Amino acid sequence: MVKRDRVDKRFVMQETILKQHVRRRPFPGRPALPFRSRTAKTAARPAVLPVLPRPLPRKPFRAEIAVRAFAHKSWRPLAFCLSIAIAAISAVALRVPPIGPVDALGGPLGGPFRDRAMKAWTGLDPTSPAAGDELPLDLSEIFSTEIYVVRGGDTVSSIAAARALSIDSIIALNGVTNVKQLKAGTVLKIPNMDGVPYTVRKGDSLVRIAASWGVPMEAILDANDLKSASIAPGASLFLPGARMRGDDLKSALGELFKYPVNGRLTSTYGWRNDPFTGVRRFHAAIDLAGPMGTPIRAAMDGKVASAGYNSVYGNFVILSHNGAYQTMYAHLDSYKVEKGRRVTQGQAIGELGTTGYSTGPHLHFAVYKNGRAIDPLRLLSRR
Q1: How far apart are CA 152 and CA 202, in angstroms?
Q2: Which of 292, 295, 377, 380 is the most buried (most CB within 10 A)?
Q3: 145-253 adopts what CATH topology?
Q4: Looking at the whole model, is its pTM more than 0.70?
Q5: Domain boundaries, the chain
Q6: CATH T-level fold of 264-378
């Protein structure tokens, strides 16, 4: 009897444990079912599968054990020692520089080994300037001049050619107005580079000057040794690589104007006796004689400022040109242009005649600069 009671109690205890286990851990997605005693004869099979027990944790692999052990605090000193040993073996086997600073003066880590190691590691020769720091050299050229005294037989072209300079660099820097008048003994300033001088005007900026003359702003800064782009009106700059304006260069070379007619020079610019009265007067032009009806051509590109008849000059044409120049063609037999029309150099604008105050068929040719008459022979190109 006692033995049976012990068995019943043990069986009841097992049922209680199983009952608690089933209620606490239902099958996923299903509610827990009411517990039915095994002793009941009418006990039915549950409608759901019994809860499977948790799988036992698997035994870790050897690699995992090694990693966990390596990460443990007690293994950190050993890991550090191993990393140092691996780095040292690699440095010797691969001949690469060790981790750490390299003595640039050839200390314990310097010398031939340092050079070979650096070349093996970077592929660069440490003795080459490209592998080290940049050379402390200023490769930008600063504008400077030298003095030259013109000798007999010298021309601006020969002086420029001897120094591999452009002719307009010497003309612009020295303010030469006519290369034909260059005389021996003249002192010239010779630049060390091509370019032209420029005087800063009010409202100018370095960016505007560079864009107007087609010169990089950095080149202007370097040539003039400027520390900033700030410039003041009246300051003198040298624009490296710039060229003179076409009209100014032609004027200095004496090629600005072409002869309007291939005629004979009968009267020059200056004082002379009046052909009618004999009174001495100033003749502010040149006279070119030729056959009647010979075409008269524009000496330079321009625009017709006036065309008409005058009792002194007869039929005349006045052209306006760049650079504040004007040309006058008088005593024409007829003219073929009208006011406001643009003409090109060499274009026919009239015919040679003898209208007005004239002694015979000729062309009265005058040149004006800013409204003042100048000698045309200084500007006309050679025939």
Answers
A1: 42
A2: 380
A3: Membrane-bound Lytic Murein Transglycosylase D; Chain A (3.10.350)
A4: no
A5: 77-123, 145-253, 264-378
A6: Glucose Permease (Domain IIA) (2.70.70)
